[in-house]
User: What shape does this take?
Amino acid sequence: MMECAVVGKFFSPIFSSSRSVVVEKRKLPSLHKKIKFCSSKFKMKATQAETHLSQEAELQAEKRGSSTGVGVGELIWPSPSDGTPFWKKDFPSSGVSPEVPADVKDSDPKHIIHVTAEMAPIAKVGGLGDVVTGLARACLSRGHTVDIMLPFYECIQKQHIKDLTVITKYNSYHDGNWVPTNAYRGVVSGIPVIFIEPSNQFFKGQYVYGGSFNELEAYLFFSRACLEWMQQVTSTQPDIIHVHEWQTGALPLLYWDIYHHLSLKPRIVLTIHNMEHYGECSKEQLSKSGLEGSVYASIDKAIDDRTIGHNPERLSLLKGGIVYSNAVVTVSPTYLKETLCTGWLASTLVRNRDKYFGILNGIDTTMWNPATDIFLPVKFNDQKPEGKKFCKYYVQRGLGLASEGTQDGNHVPDITYKAPLVVCITRLVPQKGLHLISHAIKRIEELGGQMVILGKASDAQVATEFECLAKLHNQGPCIRILLMFSEELSHLLYAAADMVLVPSIYEPCGLTQMIGMRYGAVPVVRKTGGLADTVFDMDDQSNHNRANGFVFEGIDEGSLICALDRAFTYYREKPDEWNGILKKVMEVDNSWNNTAGKYVELYNSKSVRL
Ligand code: ADP
Assistant: This one.
């Protein structure tokens, strides 16, 4: 197998001068002597001489066409024929420190335990994982005590967990038996995590979801095992148990009907990240958790309203969670409004309106930071965005997107500037506007742009459709459809992108438009849910101050095309305005610093405290 060697000879502007961009300095302990970093997949060499670009060389680099003023020396660009793709090289481990920049220290620190099915980066499928990690880190930095409880999925890569140790072996109830269970403690991205590992088949398999065990029963077990751990094993009394999604929706029922009567005293907050997944459950299944399932089969408890009078009636763990939690949050103000008007849960939410809140998600700006991102070959930030062009060129080269005239490593060729690169990073599910994503491929090709889709489909038919599209386009010069989940590649794509496309049919909050903005990718989005709360159209004169992207409303091809065409026109014909948008989107503060405080207010609010 061919080895992918990236040899970087870095010139001084990269490291120091006022015109510098920040380039990966990882594992380069000193620049005063010749240094080498080698592994089987990755090689980097730099010498002191090489890190200082002479004035003449700098001039040459500029003459060769790079208007960025950034030299990247002899960085060897990746190619599609590399044996190891450029996003799979050995990156340094992402030891993110718990220090989230926040000036605020809250006066009344709380102990918050998140009980969740996902946590980034070790068990991430979508935004839920990002949000749990980001909110937990933000609260830690504000002075709170925070723990995360997570199933110990077999697929979790243990090398990402610091100080992993078994702390307890205990039994937790499921379906008439007490299941021997291990609790581990470890630290991930600076956050203390408790991992729950039952001795049965639950949570075994290659992926977070979709293992060959009954998922609903596994999460019922997990919900009870977390309470059991708090109450019987450790007598922990957090102030808040913060549950997420249907997977932990039974916890509030178990809490109020069993564990609160024993000794637990915390209050329960539920965050709903997506109402589409509501945890359909039979009464018999709920009974396996030790509750009496039929007790919850009423309209004011956990019955799925659509099944009333049917045989059999069904329960919804999400609805039960809404009814039994002290406060319920959804992830954007617009999605809150939408969910009060549409969907079968609307009547439940209206009945519980006084404890239902919309708090916009944030992004973890330590993990998502183009100035320090370990995955990027060249770093950049809003003050010095030049490195972004090199990231674009790097990705173009690595994916074999048209980028002719590229023999010279110091030089970003014209095509890199001429062809706007649009990325779409998404779970491939109907919610994300699959037909619009396919139309975008066609239109972007017609417009002479480039597009990369990084997506994973769980549904076999969707997977087949996108595999066909990939076969059709991936040999050509401008479209790449990559059907997989890759955290590393997602970082590289955000950094490379001129635009990030989010054509969702509905979108509770959406993180990709916010991450894209931080990495200088201008969002092109459908106006729905959190997208409507974070992206404002460039051509909306009534809201010009906030304008930061391109927005369309319809779910038809024409609406999408119109937004894409406008974005391309700005990019190509109004370069000054485009540079203005670029700077503006990078400066937008969508960090948790902005919104974690709203959660803290909620933790302190009467509806939770009484
Ligand atoms: P959702 O939670 O509905 O999946 P969000 O926009 O809230 O959508 O969050 C998506 C998160 O998952 C982002 O961090 C995005 O970068 C990531 N993501 C989605 N698909 C992929 C993929 N195929 N590979 C890597 N990351 C992905």
